[in-house]
Amino acid sequence: MQKPHDHRPHGALAPGMRGERDRFVAFAFCSADILLELDARHVVTYAGGATMALTGRSPAMLLGASLFDLVAPNDHDLLRGVLERAANGLRIEQTGVRLLGPSGQVYPLTLGGYYLPDLGGHYFLSLRMDGARTAPPLDLPGDSETGLPDATGFSEKGAERLREAERQGQAPIFTLVGLEGLTRLRERLNAEARGELMWTLGSALRESSLGGDTAGNLSGDFYGLLHESTVDVKLLESKIDKIAAEADPEGRGIEVKTAAVDMGSRGLDGTDAARAFVHAVKSFEQLEGDKITIESLSQSLSSQMDETAKRIGSTRSVINARAFDIAFQPIVNLTTREIHHFEALVRFRDGESASPFQFVQFAEQVGMVREFDIAMCRRVIAWLELARKADKAYAVAVNLSGRSFGSIEFVAELHSLLKQNDWLKGQLLFEITESANIANLVQTNAIIQSLRKAGFRVCLDDFGAGESAFHYLRALDIDMVKIDGSYVRDALAQPKNRYFLKAISGLCTDLGIDTIAEMIEQEKTIALVQTCGVKFGQGYFFGRPSLDITSFDVRRSLGARKETASGGRR
């Protein structure tokens, strides 16, 4: 072992520094199969990891080699573009490349890393074998053959890049790319040639995209590309045309058509422009391939952007001005016929926003629902405070979208609001709606428990309407479950369906969860759901939603109300 005063070769690390370096390298290998350091000429100056297995060369043998000698030729343009962007300050994020194996085979890997000008202008890269060829980059849903995300994944990543571009004063361009004849070309190829073609096409699109990760498959043989204004789209067309012609055994190739879509001039900031982009691009998933042309796609996207921009503006105006009213509908104890609490339902004042369901659905789709949910909470709390000053106390449930629970900002603002109004305990309840699937059940349950710990009951709304209902019940610790009205309707129609209603109610009872049945519209419905073990009910029999809560006489039983005409909950 060398002593501290020993002479070492120039540039060698002291033992302590070497230990730290080795520790960091060990940590890096937790998420990488190969680590590489390149100089400004893209020559390997350090290598470590499974290089022998994947390249046929030891780490020492790789020193002095160009990275381009290790990567499949068809990925060179992609790699060149990625390294160039890294040198301009952008991080390399999970880009799929193919490494040349020792016997000519190709290994798909995911490339990530940085360019650090302060360390000699070197690149520090990691390569990981994680099925880069069988899953799109960035863990987004999409097409495994090209490695490109689908319309949903593309729109989400594109929105992120659009926000970044606005902060940097850039104006990206969105180009539609139609590959007419690609489907027929694929049919002329065997599986291996087809896979090679699609991966190469995907690489060509990625290399021209903003950040190297904003290209995607929109629908069938139509792709989208978000890119800088300096990208030569005609050159990209020629490259794709050449790739297809070389792959075609008949030499026919495909016809490449492109169309640029205006991303500006709608009066939106970066966040709202990104929202409009996401909503418009996702609409492509509903189109049928045989009816699509590059022209129709371009026109459709532009009109969708315009319409979405308009709706975003009107939605924000409604939220900011709280231009909505609250209607109340009672939830009743089926045994005592006394009102337990009211559900607060949004009602709009103008025809444009007449449908609460459509308004909330759109807000969820464009990422504005948390803003609306907070506005609704503030409105209900203000109403409860006025009632309190008039010496009246009501218990009211507010609907919260499952998507709002995925926002740290929303949760923090909600808790701050509740802390400022400690008197709300026992008067305010929360209903989590399933109109948007809850993505992170562990996180959502933690938020629910924080609300319950603060003194507020939580109900899961529309239970049974979605495929994940029982999964939610297993993952979420809640106080109440509102059983979807379809179970009540089916139980009335077919006696055997009562067993499903009874099973849900019984399970909830065993878990210590109260149940609420929707669509209580007749006296006989009350008897039915009670025999199934349901404790509370809501429906037109007890009253339609009303803007005037005093229309419900909360001091007397509601059991004597006359039966109303049938109709669903509004």
Q: Which key terms come to mind for this protein?
A:
disordered C terminus, Beta-Lactamase, 570 residues, 8-stranded mixed beta barrel, alpha/beta, 5-stranded antiparallel sheet, TIM Barrel, 18 helices
SSE inventory with pairings:
Blueprint (H helix, E strand, L loop, with lengths): L14 H14 L5 E5 L5 E6 L1 H5 L3 H4 L13 H12 L4 E9 L5 E11 L5 E7 L13 E2 L4 E2 L1 H17 L5 E8 L1 H6 L3 H18 L6 E5 L2 E6 L5 H15 L7 E7 L8 H13 L11 H28 L2 E10 L5 E10 L7 H10 L3 H21 L6 E6 L6 H13 L7 E6 L7 H13 L4 E6 L5 H7 L4 E4 L1 H9 L4 H13 L3 E4 L5 H9 L4 E2 L33
Parallel strand pairs: 13-14, 14-15, 15-16, 16-17, 17-18, 18-19
Antiparallel strand pairs: 1-2, 1-5, 3-4, 4-5, 6-7, 8-10, 8-11, 9-10, 12-13, 12-19
Structure report:
The protein has helices at residues 15-28, 51-55, 59-62, 76-87, 151-167, 182-187, 191-208, 233-247, 270-282, 294-321, 356-365, 369-389, 408-420, 441-453, 469-475, 485-493, 498-510, 523-531; strands at residues 34-38, 44-49, 92-100, 106-116, 122-128, 142-143, 148-149, 173-180, 215-219, 222-227, 255-261, 324-333, 339-348, 396-401, 428-433, 458-463, 480-483, 514-517, 536-537. It has 570 residues and is an alpha/beta fold. It has 3 domains: 18-128, 2-Layer Sandwich (Beta-Lactamase), CATH 3.30.450.20; 141-312, 2-Layer Sandwich (Alpha-Beta Plaits), CATH 3.30.70.270; 325-549, EAL domain (TIM Barrel, Alpha-Beta Barrel). The strands form 4 sheets. The protein has an 8-stranded mixed barrel, surrounded by 5 helices. Strand 18 (514-517), helix 18 (523-531) and strand 19 form a beta-alpha-beta unit. Residues 1-14, 131-141 and 555-570 have low confidence and may be disordered.
